[in-house]
Amino acid sequence: MNTPVVELQSVGKTFRLADGKDRSVLEAVNFTLNEGEIVSLLGKSGSGKSTMLRIMAGLIPADSGSVLYRGQPLFGPADGISMVFQSFALFPWLTVQKNVELGLEAKGISAKERSEKAEAAIELIGLSGFEGALPRELSGGMRQRVGIARALVMEPEVLLMDEAFSALDVLTGERLREDIMELWETGKIPTKAILVVSHNIEEAVMMSDRVLVFASDPGRVRDELQVTLVRPRNVESLEVRDLIDKVYGLMTAGSARSGRVTGKEIKLQLGDRLPEAEVSHMEGILELLVNEPFLGRADLPKLAEETEFSDEELLAVSSALTLLGFVHLDQGDIIINPLGEQYVQANNAERQVIFGKQLIENVPLIAYIRQGLEKDPSGDLHEDMFIRLLRFTLSEGAAISALRVAIEWGRYGDLFEYEFNTGTLNMPKKEETSEE
């Protein structure tokens, strides 16, 4: 027990942004994956989880620190480590059989041996009879099974799974996860350790011996929860529900705001990410909170069941509502504030005023846009100038995402308008009144 298979020691990774500046994606990451365990890694999108997996797989190098596989430095892809990707990553012009054989072919294994190994892996993962099919002829779940077979055919000691089930519908994802767990528990695969990146808290608790919570900007391991329950686990049991509550508590403890800590408050800075939450979802949660059965306070896992939001969606909405002062979070519970209750009771026009006021006070990017529009003689500004500003601290994709959220929120708060065809932000047009 506790025999290290892969170790990350003070690992850091920096990427060059489009404006030529460097952004730290990972900083001082320390992590050990031990033999005989499954570990889940949870965290916000863009926090660096996938980058960490690629470093562990030897696909990209760390810029600082060291990566060890079985105690030896890892400088590139290792025979004992395989990775399963969210996007399936299959070659569309190759059959199932040929897709599974690719890694073996790259290792120079003879055609006869790789054919036998691929057929065995395909049978193991439940795709016998589909060896000659092309990816386009398969369902999403079957395509992901091909990706898993391609990883397992290499007989890896370490299996890295990057959002392997998230592109699938709920039932297909659950079935595939159960099949992987059966292979693991019965010893039908030689894999000694599994690391799963996920956004699904229930999935993490059901599968794992440890659950890690990743912080972002830069990415690093922030919290860890040991899971000692025997498998298979009953998702409805009190022990599992309690653990899910605890993970929600860990996730929300650092997800309410992604800015800087000042005393007990955490305030956003101008170049910080914004929670990707839709206004309609925020209003829906507030309206649910004030009514039965919640009456002002809800357990986040129960709220997820009620709304059918994914964990990622619910955490983003909870973060946005906390940021704007409508709710506060307490150990996995969401509690409505007096301002949130006032908002629910208000009519649409009053809601816009409250929403806009909270945006100006709590979201520097939106306040900056509004101030710029007020000062500019023309009363309009192009979105590119704000994207360029955000690229000083965010990647191109994250900058565009942050501005998209700011525009949606700001338009709803009647702080500015947006011309989709020209990409221009404008001051709201006031209705003209005639005087007699």
In short:
The chain has helices at residues 49-56, 96-106, 111-124, 140-152, 170-186, 201-207, 238-253, 279-290, 300-307, 311-323, 338-345, 348-362, 364-375, 383-390, 396-412, and strands at residues 4-16, 22-34, 37-43, 64-69, 72-73, 81-84, 158-162, 193-198, 210-215, 220-226, 260-262, 265-267, 297-299, 327-330, 333-336, 380-382, 417-419, 424-426. By secondary structure, the chain is an alpha+beta fold. The protein has three domains: 4-253, P-loop containing nucleotide triphosphate hydrolases (Rossmann fold, 3-Layer(aba) Sandwich); 262-343, Winged helix-like DNA-binding domain superfamily/Winged helix DNA-binding domain (Arc Repressor Mutant, subunit A); 353-426.
Please state the average pLDDT score.
86
Instruction: Indicate the multimeric state.
Output: single chain
Please state the CA-atom Rg, rounded to the nearest Å: 24 Å
The number of helical elements comes to 15
- Major beta-sheet overview: 6 strands, mixed
User: Numbering strands along the chain, what is their spatial order in the largest sheet?
Assistant: 6-7-8-3-9-10
CATH secondary-structure class of the largest domain: Alpha Beta
Which strand-content bin applies to the residues? Answer: 15-25%
Instruction: Report the CATH superfamily of the largest domain.
Output: P-loop containing nucleotide triphosphate hydrolases
CATH topology of the largest domain: Rossmann fold
Number of beta strands: 18
Portion of residues within helices = 40-55%
Instruction: Indicate how many domains the architecture comprises.
Output: 3
Shape: globular
The appropriate CATH architecture of the largest domain is 3-Layer(aba) Sandwich
First-to-last CA distance: 87 Å
